[in-house]
Design a protein that fits this description.
Elements lengths: L5 H15 L4 H16 L3 H13 L2 E6 L2 E6 L2
Helix pairs in contact: 2-3
Length: 74
């Protein structure tokens, strides 16, 4: 890969695309923490609404055994 590693490439994409989407990484992380808290309370409608909000703004949110990860869509 031209940028060395996948993680480095993803970080570069985030740095370039998030401002264009009107977002900051800290804001995304805070909203994901709120989403996780909603999931823990079993407030799945609230958690789904946060995921939908991100998808509408150009982010993919993935839940897995190691937690929630997100990325900027290209």
């Amino acid at each position: 890969m031209v940028h060395g590693t996948h993680a480095r490439f993803a970080a570069e994409v985030r740095a370039k695309r998030l401002p264009r989407l009107g977002l900051e990484a800290a804001e995304v992380e805070a909203r994901l923490a709120a989403r996780e808290a909603a999931r823990q309370r079993r407030a799945f409608g609230e958690a789904d609404a946060i995921r939908t909000e991100f998808e509408a703004r150009g982010l993919d949110v993935r839940d897995g055994p190691d937690g929630t990860r997100w990325r900027v869509r290209l």
